[in-house]
Write a structure and sequence with these properties.
Helix content: over 70%
Order of helices and strands: HHHHHHHHHHHHHHHHHHHHH
Shape: globular
Distance between the termini: 24 Å
Strand content: under 5%
Number of helices: 21
Number of strands: 0
Number of domains: 1
Length: about 475
C-alpha cells in the first residue's frame, strides 16, 4: 500500500528538478540548495526561525558526515607536498621510468602508475607527484604530451577516482545519500569501474594510434612562459636542507611499503569505510611528520603546520561547494527527522523512499530504464566540473529508483557515481582537466575533445552491463 505524499515530498522533488536544470545549464547549485533547505524547514517547523536555523544545522550535519573524507584528502595533499619538494616522488618512480621504452609502454605505464598512485593520493596530488617526472620520459620515447595527459587523466581522474577504493570519498557520499553501507556500493562498483576503465582507455589508445598513423593527430601544446618544474621549486624552498640521495632512496622504498601494509591490514583486520580511511590517514600524517623533520630539521615543527594548512585549504576548497548540496540531499533520508523532528507521515521511511514507492505505483519503471536514466543523471551532475558536488543527487535518485523496482540499489548508486565522476571529475569538463593539462603543457580543451569519444563509448557499454546487474 502506497504512502500518502505530503507537501514536503513535492517540494523536495521540485527542487531536485531545479537543481538538475541548473546543472544542465552549467550554473552553480549552492543557492537553490539553500533555498530548498529553507523551504523544507518552513514546511516542517512552520516558523521562520526554525527554517533559518535549519539551513545552518543542515550544513553542520553535512560537514560532520563529510569530515572524515575532507580530512583524509587534506592530509594526503599535505603529505604529497613534502614528497614533491624533497624529490622523493622522483626517486619513487625512477625505476619505473627506466622500463618505459616505446610509446605504447609509455601510455599504459604512465596510466597504470597514475591509477595506483591516485588510489592512495587522489588524482590531483598524484598528477603533481608523477607527472613532472614521467612526462619527459614519455615524450623521449615518442608518446605525445597530449597522449601522456590522456593516460594520466583517464586512469587517475577516471578509473581511480570513480572507484576510490582506498580513501573512499566518492562511495561515502553516494552511499550516504542512498541510505546504503559504503561497502555495498564499493562492491557493486567493481564490475562497472572495470568495464568503464577498459573500454575507455583501450578506445582512447586505439584512436590516438589511428590518428597518428593517418597524420590527423593534434598535440594541443601550449606555451608556458617563465615556468619552473616542481622539483626546481622544491630545491629553492629547501635549499641546503635537501635530503641525501641515500635517504631519498630509503624513503622511496619505505613509503610505498607502509601503504602496502595498510592495504594488507585492511584485508586481515576487515577494515572498511571510516576505519580503513583512518588507517591511511594516520599513516600519511606520520610520514608527513617524519619527512618534514628530516628535511627541515630545526624548522620542522613550524613546517609541519604549514604543510597541514596547505592541505586543509585544498580540502575545504574542493568540498566547499559540496557541503550545501550534500546538506540538501541528506534531508532526503534520516537527516530530515534528526533536524526538524517527526513531521513526515507515520509510515514514512524518508522523503526519497516515499517518492520511490509512489513512483512504483504510477510509473512502469524497470532495470533497463533505471540504468539509462541513472547514467544520464550522473553525467548531468558532473557538468559542473567537480564530479563530487552532484553525486549525492545520484545516490538519492538511485535509491528512489531502487525503491520503485525493488532491486538494484547498490548497482544504480554505483552507476550514477561512475558516470558523474568520469564526466565531471576531470575527463570531459575543460575546467576540471587543468591539473593534467597544466603539468603536460597541453590545452585542456583539446584534452577534453580527445577524451570525449572514448568516455561516451565507455558510458554506453557500462550502462548496458549495469542493466544485467540490476
Amino acid at each position: 500500500m502506497g504512502i500518502e505524499l505530503a507537501a514536503i515530498h513535492y517540494v523536495y522533488l521540485v527542487f531536485i528538478v531545479f537543481i538538475l536544470g541548473l546543472l544542465i545549464r552549467r550554473r552553480d547549485t549552492t543557492m537553490i540548495c539553500v533555498v530548498g533547505i529553507f523551504a523544507l524547514g518552513l514546511l516542517a517547523t512552520n516558523t521562520l526561525s526554525g527554517s533559518v536555523s535549519g539551513i545552518f544545522n543542515s550544513f553542520v550535519y553535512a560537514t560532520k558526515e563529510l569530515l572524515g573524507t575532507i580530512m583524509i584528502i587534506s592530509i594526503i595533499v599535505a603529505m604529497s607536498r613534502i614528497l614533491i619538494i624533497t624529490g622523493i616522488n622522483e626517486t619513487m618512480v625512477a625505476p619505473l621510468s627506466r622500463l618505459i621504452r616505446t610509446p605504447s609502454m609509455a601510455y599504459w605505464g604512465i596510466g597504470i602508475i597514475m591509477m595506483v598512485t591516485s588510489f592512495f593520493f587522489w588524482p590531483s596530488p598524484a598528477v603533481a607527484l608523477i607527472g613532472a617526472v614521467l612526462l619527459p620520459v614519455a615524450v623521449r620515447v615518442g608518446l605525445p604530451a597530449l597522449g601522456a595527459a590522456m593516460a594520466m587523466n583517464l586512469f587517475g581522474h577516471g578509473i581511480a577516482l570513480s572507484g576510490d577504493y582506498i580513501i573512499q570519498g566518492a562511495p561515502k557520499l553516494t552511499a550516504d545519500a542512498a541510505g546504503l553501507p559504503v561497502s555495498s556500493v564499493m562492491e557493486a562498483s567493481v564490475p562497472l569501474v572495470i568495464v568503464m576503465g577498459l573500454v575507455t582507455t583501450v578506445a582512447a589508445f586505439w584512436l590516438m594510434r589511428r590518428d597518428q598513423k593517418n597524420g590527423t593527430w593534434r598535440n594541443g601544446l601550449v606555451t608556458v612562459k617563465g615556468g619552473s618544474s616542481l622539483t626546481e621549486v622544491g630545491e629553492q624552498l629547501i635549499g641546503p636542507l635537501l635530503l641525501s640521495p641515500r635517504v631519498k632512496k630509503t624513503l622511496a622504498i619505505v613509503i610505498p611499503l607502509l601503504f602496502l601494509l595498510d592495504v594488507v591490514a585492511m584485508f586481515v583486520l576487515k577494515l572498511q569505510g571510516g576505519d580503513a580511511t583512518a588507517l591511511v590517514g594516520g599513516t600519511a600524517v606520520l610520514i608527513l611528520i617524519a619527512i618534514t623533520m628530516l628535511a627541515h630539521r630545526n624548522r620542522g615543527l613550524e613546517k609541519i603546520t604549514s604543510y597541514l594548512i596547505e592541505g586543509f585549504v585544498f580540502g575545504f576548497k574542493v568540498f566547499g561547494p559540496v557541503i550545501p548540496i550534500a546538506a540538501f540531499f541528506y534531508l532526503g533520508d534520516s537527516a530530515f527527522t534528526e533536524l526538524f523532528g517527526k513531521v513526515l507521515p507515520e509510515a514514512s521511511h524518508g522523503i526519497v523512499n516515499d517518492l520511490g514507492v509512489a513512483l512504483a505505483n504510477h510509473v512502469p519503471l524497470n532495470g533497463a530504464v533505471g540504468a539509462v536514466t541513472m547514467t544520464i543523471i550522473g553525467a548531468i551532475t558532473g557538468l559542473d566540473g567537480s564530479g563530487f558536488s552532484g553525486i549525492s543527487l545520484a545516490g538519492s535518485i538511485a535509491q528512489l529508483f531502487a525503491s520503485a523496482i525493488h532491486t538494484g540499489a547498490a548497482t544504480l548508486t554505483a552507476l550514477g557515481q561512475v558516470a558523474a565522476i568520469w564526466v565531471g571529475g576531470g575527463t570531459l569538463i575543460p575546467w576540471a582537466l587543468i591539473p593534467a593539462a597544466a603539468i603536460c603543457g597541453v590545452s585542456p580543451f583539446e584534452l577534453a575533445r580527445r577524451n570525449l569519444k572514448p568516455v561516451l563509448l565507455g558510458l554506453a557499454v557500462t550502462t548496458i552491463v549495469a542493466m544485467f546487474l540490476v
